[in-house]
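Slide 14.
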Amino acid sequence: MIENRPKHLTAQDGYNRFPSEPFSVAFENLPPLLRACLAPVGGVQPITGAMFRAAGTILRDKPSEGEIEMFRAAGTQFQMISMVASIAHLKRNGGPPHAVPYALTLLPASKRGKVDPCSIDYIANVIGGRADSDDSCYTGFDPFCGDWGMYGSLSLFTQTGYNGHLDELGIVVGRYYIPLQYDAADVVETPLGFDNPRLEEKYAKHRGRLLYTPFKKVEARPLWGLDSPIELFLFQELLRRGHEPEPQVLFTTDGKCHASLYHLWKDIEFRHMPQTVTVSDFYFPKQKLAVFCDSNAFHRSPKAQAKDQAIDEKLKAAGYRSVRIQGRSIVKNLKQAADLVEDSL
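Slide 15: predicted structure.
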């Protein structure tokens, strides 16, 4: 459950109200690189050379007879993974509302508190069927800690007047199936289009670990999005004012920036890569403005402040501007914090 919401937000008429009408998820708000990373994810993943050879044709989400026979003969078990979008705000421009996501999270199918595996025959029967097209969702879903309340049909919750918070709604926007065993050396990946081959290699490796590592227990695995509730509150206020910054952007000293998959910056391979500077909490591409939400716990000491100043100077040298907002000020005076961002645009 997301707590300590700023009064400035809760006082707004209709703030965070669960939708009572159909809406669509505004995937155009996701960074292009992230959309490119996730577009091929469906059916059995990751795709391998063995799957191509068994199919003998173009691979589709629904496994071919050749793939079914291959996995059946091997006795392969799979985990069904749901890709869950958390919603920050509903945009209304005269037509049906569009939901702006603030996080994407992976959740494994479970039964009685344990990860529930499935067979290739189950996958072949489900994909393309009624169960596969259901508008499933989680209510009371907190992507920051992975807790949720109920799982069911979004249409049903909407029609029955469910009164939970909008930002605690987790919409299932995709499903795929991970085999518990596969040959990592045989995995076939689509190029992501980086100018720097080494950066592409590291990014693809990190993406693979996030998407294709089987779950050992029932837990949420953050894939992309905001790191904390204070970032969410600032994001909601900026969206309310008509601004749509990109969350979680990785910067390099050559002037490039890319969408950052979750914990990318904490990956040892990235931290020691040449040209890597930092990841901003938000980024305004047109104004080339990076926004940081600095928690008091990690940014108060003189050493931390000196590090932040060095990062700001590197960003400036690469052609970017930056503004830092104290996390405490977001909770205590959100309006003032958002004003500071607006004044920097």
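Speaker note: The chain has a mean pLDDT of 89.
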